[in-house]
Specification:
There is one protein chain. Helices cover 39% and strands 12% of the residues. The protein starts with a helix and ends with a helix. The relative contact order is 0.07. By secondary structure, the chain is of the alpha/beta class. The chain has 4 domains: 195 residues, no CATH class; 320 residues, Rossmann fold (3-Layer(aba) Sandwich); 236 residues, Rossmann fold (3-Layer(aba) Sandwich); 131 residues, Rossmann fold (3-Layer(aba) Sandwich). The protein is elongated and about 105 Å long. The strands form 5 sheets. It has an 8-stranded mixed β-sheet with strand order 3-9-10-8-7-4-6-5. It is built from 32 helices and 24 strands.
């Protein structure tokens, strides 16, 4: 069949090796509408088998079709013998192919000739693909009528002149559409139909145009008001990018029509104050108080342009809660925080496809191109653990980063947005001086997001009327740009003049808009008319049970042993249909013995029981990180992989019908964006144990920005509570400087004002109660755990079910061997795995006058408990702090003053000694022999 049709096509002059693009155009047209192509072609395309052999399919490779035709052209028996009439037809058909190639070129490269720069100084390379001559066409052909192919316009045929004018208007006006990199044909055709069907973008009603002008007036008016009232004060104004305000306004209102209940907005400093007032409805009077230093401070606070805010906005679809995330000056790090917050809100609403909660993130052009966390965030966008149903990204592209404007300095890509192509997100570049184009692109972007649940990017090409901030003079580094800016009218002024010329508004109305907005600012009125004054509490997360609590070293986390045993048995009740791998079967066989009391409970079982007990107490558990399902050291096996079907079975999801949600995901190989995501999630979900586990604690420093700017300081700067738990495998076992240290010293250095908790549990019982305390206690503070490696299977870390049920977390563990405390001459204080090394050597040497005390929590330091422990050793002569880390690392420098305070109070004549590795630039020795030598040396010193 195919052979006969192809012969027919060739004989009629429709085919040649250079016509592959024509064939592809026809095939795309056929997929959209089979009746749109000639009958002979329709018969051929219908003969193409789909994967199931039942007919044509969009999955048939276009490349394969083109290859087949090019191969056919080389077969000599198809060489045409044409009449004069056929030659004429063949020449027209050849030009028709070139016209279709021209259409395709505009779709692919039209954006490179679009009028995007309001200043007109952007360097644009010549685009030969968009010239007639490139396609063997000329002005002579301008009146020739050609088929428009798959072009979504009202005419099936048109003169070449009209086709080119239409393409220029659609693809080379104020919007540059980048979407041909998208593989999915449905998505491409959807975009084509929307933009080509509107000849670029539609004509808006006069009322819409007036509203656009009002929003631009508000955006410009606030900046002018602040400039006149607080001259020279930093505010990182939006001047030059005022079109952001009508764009965000449209996103909010249109999302409401889609049924959205919440929007989470993340953005850097540029334009933030404007968005707070003109989009979220912050009272201008409150903003003015902040400028004047009148605000009431309940914490150390942060600058105005880092502050978050939330409000409820009324839309045509109902009330909508909108939150702007707090963020530091570390550009782009807020993006994954926003995504985490959105995912948590979606989970709370059972919003599996992301229809009810929408993330919007505003970026700067330099940071979007330069910061690696942008790539990480995009990479997360379609993963199971981190997807949010698509994000609307807006680039406030003022074409300069602080003082860097040269493209060959700022990036290696053509556009600052090129990173978004990795997830095949459509990118819409738009001239910010064309508000109607901005409005259309905004609508298009949001509609695409809701249609396909994918990320989409708006590149708002604008300028920065002032310097990086209001105290900066930019002409020293950008003389030509700022010469152009000084002569350039504002977006509002240009659009107002256009609407006056159209008769949409009068000069008087324009003047009244300005004066009315200024009056609202002067009187301290809310300028967002859709602001809900009495917001619905249904749209909020209730944090009141977690407010006003102080840290306490003691909290009861015991539970009935019968309940614990029932959970243990449920955890090991694996269906017979699930085929276990040999080692996994051994783990669960041993856990069954633990559940029945035949064996003591090990670390992995105790941890799993902690999760089970939390899930059946009405609290959720979420665990992410690299390899967390199994655990880096194969101790967890929370996810069982059926060896026959490959399906997952998760015992912690099968505890009871009314249990809370348990989710566990192996993350992508990222620390920074993933940890930021979990921070955002935990700040939005108070009733959950949210855990991020590092593959090795050493790798956590890839996320140091998140640790420094959010986890350890977020509450103090922004009063944002966070109960995130970090499990950071830590311990010196001779594995070298990259697999030994979670950098305990850094977390202790960051500890102040009870901002975080730092723990080093050394028994299965301790990890059980530590995890339970983290969620059952109403205090919400980040928990940083130096989790063990070798202790996971250490025979002396185990406990019975009864011990697990009856105890609580102990911040300090006194000597456990039978040593007469009155005969103790030396006391060793330590934390973590080194305790077992010390105890083993002490037993080996049969030492009875040295006691070992473990600090299981280093911050907040349990001062009272520690002093009570010390007082039991009345005859002690020497007290030593022992650690396996080098002296300049570990807890020595950060914790010794706590210990010395106790010694000064009770043993003033005793000087605290140090036993540990010498100071080192590297975290650990890489040579096994050196590791052993160092270990032996400081153990000897401690026990001497």
């Amino acid at each position: 069949m195919q052979e006969n049709v192809m012969e027919l096509m060739w004989s009629t002059g429709h085919l040649s090796g250079s016509s592959a693009e024509y064939v592809e155009e026809l095939y795309e047209s056929f997929l959209s509408d089979p009746d749109s192509v000639p009958e002979q072609w329709r018969s051929f395309f219908e003969s193409l088998a789909s994967p199931d052999g039942r007919g044509p399919s969009q999955d048939v490779s276009h490349a394969d079709i083109k290859r087949d035709f090019k191969t056919l052209s080389r077969v000599s028996r198809y060489a045409p013998v044409l009449s004069n009439e056929a030659v004429i037809n063949s020449e027209h058909e050849s030009k028709q192919v070139h016209v279709l190639q021209l259409i395709s070129s505009y779709r692919v490269r039209g954006h490179q000739r679009a009028n995007l720069d309001p200043l007109g100084i952007m360097h644009r390379e010549r685009v030969p693909d968009l010239e007639l001559e490139f396609h063997d066409l000329s002005q002579i052909d301008s009146s020739t009528v050609f088929q428009t192919g798959s072009l979504f316009i009202s005419k099936e045929t048109a003169p070449l002149r009209d086709i080119v004018e239409t393409l220029e208007h659609i693809y080379c006006s104020s919007v540059g559409y980048e979407y041909m990199h998208i593989v999915n044909l449905e998505e491409k055709q959807w975009i084509q139909q929307r933009i080509e069907g509107n000849d670029g973008y539609p004509t808006f009603e006069n009322e819409v145009k007036r509203h656009l002008l009002e929003r631009l007036t508000a955006a410009e008016g606030l900046e002018k008001h602040l400039d006149s009232k607080y001259p020279g004060t930093k505010r990182f104004g939006l001047e030059g990018g005022e079109s952001l305000i009508p764009s965000l306004d449209e996103l909010v209102q249109r999302a409401g029509k889609y049924g959205a209940k919440e929007i989470v907005l993340g953005m850097a400093h540029r334009g933030r104050l404007n968005v707070l007032v003109n989009i979220l409805g912050k009272n201008p009077a409150d903003l003015f108080d902040e400028f004047e230093g009148k605000a009431v401070y309940e914490s150390s606070g942060d600058v105005k342009y880092h502050q978050g805010f939330s409000s409820n906005i009324m839309t045509a679809g109902g009330e909508l809660h909108m939150a702007m995330a707090f963020n530091p000056s570390h550009l782009e790090i807020v993006a994954p925080v926003v995504e985490g917050s959105v995912r948590a809100r979606q989970a709370r609403r059972d919003d599996a496809n992301g229809s009810l909660v929408l993330p919007i993130i505003c970026h700067g052009d330099a940071a979007f191109a330069g910061q690696g966390v942008v790539m990480e965030t995009f990479q997360m966008s379609n993963t199971r653990a981190y997807s949010t149903g698509g994000t609307v990204h807006i680039i406030i592209n003022n074409q300069v980063g602080f003082t860097t404007h040269r493209q060959d300095d700022a990036r290696s890509t053509e556009y600052c947005t090129d990173v978004a192509k990795m997830v095949q997100a459509p990118i819409f570049h738009v001239n910010a001086d064309d508000p109607e184009a901005v409005l259309f692109v905004t609508q298009l972007a949001l509609d695409f997001r809701y249609e396909f649940k994918k990320d989409v990017v708006i590149d708002l090409v604008c300028y920065r009327r002032r310097g990086h901030n209001e105290t900066d003079e930019p002409s020293a580094t950008q003389p030509l740009m700022y010469s152009a800016i000084k002569q350039h009218k504002s977006t509002r002024a240009l659009y107002a003049a256009e609407l006056v010329s159209q008769g949409v508004v009068s000069d008087e109305e324009v003047s009244n808009m300005n004066s009315n907005f200024r009056q609202e600012l002067d009187t301290g009125q809310h300028v967002v008319k859709s602001l809900v004054k009495d917001p619905s509490i249904e749209l909020f997360v209730d944090w009141s049970p977690y407010l006003g609590h102080d840290w306490s070293p003691h909290f009861n986390t015991s539970m009935p042993v019968a309940n614990l045993q029932a959970l243990a048995k449920k955890l090991v009740d694996i269906p017979n249909s699930v085929a276990l791998q040999r080692q996994v079967n051994k783990v669960y066989t041993e856990r069954a013995a633990m559940a029945s009391g035949e064996k003591p409970v090990d670390w992995g079982m105790a941890e799993t029981l902690a999760y089970a007990s939390i899930l059946t107490s009405g609290n959720k558990v979420r665990i992410t990180g690299q390899d967390v399902g199994r655990g880096t050291f194969s101790h967890r096996h929370a996810v069982i992989h059926d060896q026959k079907s490959g399906q997952d079975y998760i015992p912690l999801q099968e505890l009871a019908k009314d249990q809370s949600d348990f989710t566990i995901y192996d993350s992508l190989l990222s620390e920074e964006a993933v940890l930021a995501f979990e921070y955002g999630f935990s700040t939005t979900t108070p009733n959950a144990l949210v855990i991020w586990e590092a593959q090795f604690g050493d790798f956590a420093n890839s996320a140091q920005v998140v640790i420094d700017q959010f986890i350890t300081s977020g509450e103090h700067k922004w009063q944002r509570l966070c109960g995130l738990t970090l499990l950071l495998p830590h311990g010196y076992e001779g594995q070298g400087p990259e697999h030994s240290s979670a950098r305990l010293e850094r977390f202790l250095q960051l500890s102040a004002e009870h901002n975080i908790q730092v723990c080093l549990p050394t028994t299965a019982s301790q990890v059980f109660h530590m995890l339970r305390k983290q969620v059952l206690c109403p205090l919400r503070k980040p928990l940083v755990v130096m989790s063990p490696k070798s202790l996971l299977r250490h025979k002396e870390t185990v406990c019975s079910l009864e011990q697990l049920a009856d105890n609580s977390f102990q911040v300090i563990i006194d000597e456990t061997d039978k040593i007469n405390k009155e005969q103790v001459r030396k006391l060793i204080i330590c934390s973590g795995k080194v305790y077992y090394d010390l105890r083993a050597e002490r037993r080996k040497r049969d030492i009875s006058d040295i006691a070992i005390v473990r600090l299981e929590q280093l911050y907040p330091f349990p001062q009272e408990d520690f002093e009570q422990c010390l007082l039991q050793y009345k005859n002690v002569e020497l007290i030593t702090w022992c650690q396996e880390e080098p002296m300049n690392q570990g807890a020595w420098y950060a914790s010794q003053h706590h210990i010395r305070r106790a010694l000064h109070a009770h043993f003033p004549e005793i000087w605290l000694e140090y036993a540990g590795r010498d100071a080192s630039a590297a975290a650990a020795a890489g040579y096994p022999a050196l590791h052993i030598s160092q270990q032996k040396k400081f153990i000897d010193e401690a026990l001497s």
